[in-house]
Write a structure and sequence with these properties.
This protein is α/β, with parallel strands linked by helices and 482 residues long. The chain contains 15 helices and eleven strands. The protein is 36% helix and 13% strand. The relative contact order is 0.14.
Length: 482
């Protein structure tokens, strides 16, 4: 089968008997081996062959499985029984998960076969997948550049054709930003739409599992499988998934609001892609206007003053006492200190320290409490904007993929890479990055993305919109040259 066939096509081929889950797995394993230099995967699933055999038996028994035999990659912070879940950190180097995340289990129930675990920024902290403790991930469009982060491995797995779909996690843009930089779809659902049970927490009020794909049909397919209430997750919503691909008629009369604050600071290629997308929407009958959200100027500061304190709290459990690597010492306190000092990378340590400081006595009200108030203000401005428009639009990233090492010495510049995405997590809204064009930089064609945002629980609207954009040829989906 072709490396770039969609998940829907592969599942239909398995159901019809044209191919088998075992054959698809073997082909995916061969592609993973060939793509090793990209550093997309941290490990292969030792149980994948048994999973493929089980799917084959279910198909032969007459089951109609929506993801029959489809190979898929999970970001390495999503637990899967019997596999390593390292979060790309030395502190969890040998940790083998004793249970499976709800989203992963629903994929298995639907017939998917987990090929392996994708590389990521350590504990999902980063925007370039350079913070992995094991290896960097390279952008398949230009191996001197980053794929974005923190779900860079999951994005590359789809962009390079290793698997047709993958799962990542999005705390402040970690699905959408690498999707834009790698030229694929990246979807961040409404907070609570997909269970977080089994996702290793970074910032619990912001994290959300989301899919990467190369077609709107595959987005709908995955979301219909993984979305829905989960009794294991108290924050999951009672909102049964009803995802379907829309046609060009979906765009007639659609009210599209361009967020004014996102129009400054973009590169020429990003600006051109945004304007071309808006022109295509107008041509299909959409009504395009501008809307201001003044509080977005505070989004980056607000995001990090919430995410880092939550990370500080969540990562307190990693001390070597119960699981993970333990550094020996003369007493327990020294052992914990050494374990965290040697197990966590510099960026994780930085965020823990800033988060602890922001929560400390005398600073809680000045920083964390004030950030929570601004978070409410941002959410209120989004709600007001959705009184005028059905969807909002921004660039996904103000620039295409940057070179490896370009921003590692300047944490603030790296944090600013998420300027167009973090506010959506603060407000808990769904958003979709759509491949919208290319920008030539130093002789290389690099993908850029446009981000569409919907009101809470408007997830189905965004997936339908993706199908409509495909129908009017407004999606620029290409295959990177090896």
């Amino acid at each position: 089968m072709s490396a770039f066939q969609t998940a829907a096509q592969l599942a239909r081929a398995v159901q019809s008997g044209e191919t088998s889950p075992q054959q698809l797995l073997q082909e995916a394993q061969a592609r993973a081996q060939a793509a090793q230099p990209l550093g997309a995967l941290l490990s292969l699933n030792d149980h994948a062959a048994q999973q493929a055999e089980a799917v084959a038996r279910r198909v032969q028994a007459g089951e109609n499985l929506p993801l029959a035999g489809v190979p898929i990659v999970l970001k390495d912070n999503i637990n899967l029984t019997g596999t390593r879940t390292t979060c790309a950190s030395r502190i969890l180097e040998n940790y083998v998960s004793p249970y499976t995340a709800t989203a992963a289990q629903r994929l298995l129930d639907a017939g998917a076969v987990v090929l392996g675990k994708a590389n990521m920024d350590e504990f999902a902290m980063g925007s370039s997948t350079e913070n992995s403790a094991y290896q960097p991930t390279l952008n398949p469009w230009d191996r001197e550049r980053v794929p974005g982060g923190s779900s860079g491995g999951s994005a590359v797995a789809v962009a390079a054709g290793i698997t047709p779909v993958s799962l990542g996690s999005d705390t402040g843009g970690s699905v959408r930003q690498p999707a834009a930089l790698c030229g694929v779809y990246g979807f961040k659902p409404t907070y609570g739409r997909v269970s977080r049970y089994g996702l290793v927490a970074y910032a619990s009020s912001l994290d959300q599992i989301g899919p990467f794909a190369r077609s709107a049909e595959d987005l709908a397919l995955l979301m219909n499988v993984i979305a829905g209430h989960d009794p294991h997750d108290a924050t999951s919503l009672h909102a049964p998934p009803q995802f379907a691909v829309g046609g060009a008629e979906t765009l007639r009369g659609l009210r599209v609001g361009v967020i004014r604050e996102s129009l400054a600071g973009n590169t020429a290629g990003v600006e051109a892609a945004l304007q071309n997308t808006l022109d295509a929407l107008r041509g299909a009958g959409a009504v395009v206007g501008e809307v201001g959200l003044p509080a977005l100027q505070y989004a980056i500061a607000t995001y990090y003053l919430i995410a880092m304190p939550e990370a500080s709290s969540n990562l307190a459990r990693f001390d070597g006492m119960v699981y993970g690597v333990r550094q020996p010492a003369d007493d327990v306190t020294r052992s914990m200190t050494l374990t965290r000092e040697r197990g966590f990378g510099k960026e994780v340590q930085r965020r823990i320290m800033i988060g602890t400081y922001a929560l400390s006595s005398g600073y809680y009200d000045a920083y964390y409490s004030k950030a929570m108030k601004v978070r409410r203000l941002i959410a209120d401005e989004f709600a007001e904007a959705f009184g005028q428009y059905d969807v909002l639009v921004t660039p996904t990233s103000p620039f295409p993929a940057f070179k490896r090492g370009e921003k590692t010495s300047d944490p603030l510049a790296m944090y600013a890479a998420d300027v167009d995405t973090v506010a959506i997590n603060l407000a808990g809204l769904p958003a979709l990055s759509v491949p919208a064009g290319f920008e030539e930089v130093e002789g290389q064609r690099l993908p850029v993305g446009v981000q569409f945002i919907a009101p809470a629980l408007g997830d189905e609207r965004l997936v339908a919109l993706a199908g409509a954009l495909e129908a009017i040829d407004a999606v620029q989906m290409e295959v990177p040259q090896p």
